[in-house]
Amino acid sequence: MRLSRIPRPGPSQDEADPVPGEELLSIEGLKVAFDDGSRRTQALRGVDLNLHAGEIHGVAGESGSGKTTVALTTMGLLPRGTHVEGSVRYRGTELLNISERQLRRFRGRRVAMIFQETSTALNPVMTAGHQLMMAARTHLPGTRAEARDRVRAALRDVRLRDTERVMSSYPHELSGGMCQRIMIAMALSCGSRVLLADEPTTALDVSVQAEVLDLVKGLVASRHLGVLMISHDLAVLAQVADNITVMYQGEVVESGPGDVVLRQPAHPYTVGLLSCLPRLHGRRGDLPELPPVGEVTEGGCQYQPRCALASLECRQAPNLASVADGGDRLARCWKSTSVLAASKRGSGGLPRVPPATRATEPSLNGAVSLENESNP
Amino acid sequence: MSSVLVVEDLTVVYGRRRRGRVVAVDRLSLQIEEGTTFGLVGESGSGKTTVGRAVLGLVRPASGRILVDGGPVQHLALRAAIEQGKKAQVVFQDPTGSLNPARLVLDTLREPLRIHERLKRDASTRAAEALGEKVSLAPGMLRRLPYQLSGGQNQRAAIARALAPTPRLVVCDEPVTALDVSTQAQVINLLVDLQRQTRVAYLFISHDISVVRHVSHRIGVMYAGRLVEVGDASSVSTSPSHPYTQALLAAVPVPDPARQRERRSRRRALAGAAVDDALPATGGCPYRLRCPWTDEVCQRVEPQLRPVGEDHLVACHHAERAVLAGQSAEPAPAGQGSTADS
């Protein structure tokens, strides 16, 4: 079988268990561009992100914001011919531009990834046990019996009790929540320290979602894993994330501790994402919407076409910078101070401006001040 | 107001042999008035989608009666299906998958106009463009293929297609689940706006009670094929009286870490057993294996829907206790499943 060609792990790959707070993953200035022959799409425009042992780091943003690309780059799973610049290091070792052979010492063994669609991530014609065993035996030395013990232990760690039944089941015989637990168990049994979770609960029911999130939180605390939790839903990240990075169009627009970013956002995009979440208390059919994506001024702020606060200065791209009185947080906005002041007052959403007005006269936007808002 | 949809004692059974027999929907009744939305909530496997399919005539009920706009729904007869299509339409979860990938969106919109309204080519094009405008899709957008549009745009096209024959009822089966949060808001607002304009009724199916309460006038909560709680949307969402509804509400994520921590402990108190482990019970109350209030009565007697307020019915023997516990926010008593998180 092809798998046998994967280098068996030697003693050199044993490494010390991470101590809490140790930096596991360090991403610096990551730029990724996809070429499809005629057109180049800039997926990431310089992303910085650090993940520590015992930390859940949430990455938020809409489809197309580049949040999945960050994870795929780290895993070395980008298609051939993709332009990648910058650096991704696992405990100091560079993972970019190394050979496939070297990468295999980390991928699955130190850094694992789980996906949204559990039903497609697992092979439908193999039992869960077979797949768990295959992963465990590929990545770690030892006998079949040892591997089986590790798999059983991992299944218990993800709170699957009837391990024998689970292992002899095919994916279609298991629920979505159970499949996602199996994916997590697979990562654990191979000794991964870093888990990249791409929308791990989006396809699950809310009650199952809550359980899986609790489970991940528990594992992070007990094993000092580092988890990069990718989601479009800030409410999901609020349940688990210690730190949150909000991405827009391949850039980090805001990042900082979860409490700070979610309770007092300083970037209009974060405010917008929060305001359009359905609330348990609120009027029927009256959700604030984000305006549609528009043309970006060359060299200007990426979010400007959708921003209710955009003015002339936004034709220049702002930097990711700390915000006055904003705590341990960075935001990429010229007006972050006033946005932060508004969210501290608790006035909620941003004023809504009809897109037509903005498209013709961008400078008009500045006339709408934060004080005028009357959103419920 | 007249009822657009009447469902009485609907039972749907999948599988014929005794071993594989699953009662997907069990003696379920509901009504939807003109111009209103009935939200049907429940987890996967609760039977909510099957109700929608039965209403559309896509599965044959084992027993019970379904009337759409006064007429009975017939199962899978072509002539009847076309007539039914004029009255009841559907919007599915996966917007891209529910549109023909090889057809311009415009042609997809023209098809129902051709079949139901018998419009000729030019007339149907004009009508399709007018429909597109209603869902904020410019004529240029309509002349694209589904893969060239975003998920939200495709879902708006699917909504336009559903509304093309001016139906009295649209079954929306998880219409925003596959969309980004920001796009969800657009589609929800669009559905509500269109309802105000056309007086169409929605059967809105979702597992997410926070989405459901934003669109619904009335909410029904399903568990194991049964309605366990039904009533006015604000009563059900602000004073949930069935332990299952309470658990569903407690599981909804809120974007505030501090409140989330409170809710986590509350959720643990409300959850009897881990969700994955507890299959619906047979005999007695189907929820009893997951319920923190379970006692001997729940094992023997299946609870029936009974009023607990104006337009608010609950099928639970212990609704009053559950409500009291919910109001005082005190943890429920340690039931048999309270070790779930250990």
Brief characterization of the structure:
Chain A has 376 residues and is α/β, with parallel strands linked by helices.
Commentary on this structure:
The complex is a heterodimer of chains A (376) and B (342). Chain A is of the alpha/beta class and 376 residues long. Chain A folds into 2 domains: 23-241, P-loop containing nucleotide triphosphate hydrolases (Rossmann fold, 3-Layer(aba) Sandwich); 259-278 and 299-357, no CATH class. Chain A has helices spanning 67-75, 100-103, 118-121, 128-139, 144-157, 163-167, 176-189, 206-223, 234-240, 258-263, 268-275, 336-345, 355-360; strands at 23-35, 40-52, 55-60, 83-90, 93-94, 111-114, 194-198, 226-231, 243-248, 251-257, 321-322, 330-331. Chain A has an 8-stranded mixed beta sheet, with helices on both faces. In chain A, a hairpin with a 7-residue loop joins strand 11 and strand 12 (330-331). Chain A is globular. The termini of chain A are far apart. Mean pLDDT of chain A is 84; it is low at 351-376. By secondary structure, chain B is an alpha/beta fold. Chain B has 2 domains: 3-207, P-loop containing nucleotide triphosphate hydrolases (Rossmann fold), CATH 3.40.50.300; 234-326, no CATH class. Helix content of chain B is 38%, strand content 21%. Chain B has helices spanning 48-55, 78-87, 105-116, 121-134, 139-142, 151-163, 181-198, 209-215, 233-238, 243-251, 257-270, 296-300, 319-328, and strands spanning 3-14, 22-33, 37-41, 63-68, 71-72, 88-91, 169-173, 201-206, 218-223, 226-232, 306-309, 312-314. An 8-stranded mixed beta sheet of chain B has the order 6-7-8-3-9-10-12-11, sandwiched between helices. Chain B has a 4-stranded antiparallel beta sheet with strand order 2-1-4-5, covered by helices on one side. In chain B, strand 4 (63-68) and strand 5 (71-72) form a beta hairpin. The termini of chain B are far apart. Mean pLDDT of chain B is 87; it is low at 329-342. Classes of the chains: A alpha/beta (376), B alpha/beta (342). Chains A and B meet through helix 7, helix 8, helix 9, helix 10 and helix 11 of A and helix 7, helix 8, helix 9, helix 10 and helix 11 of B.
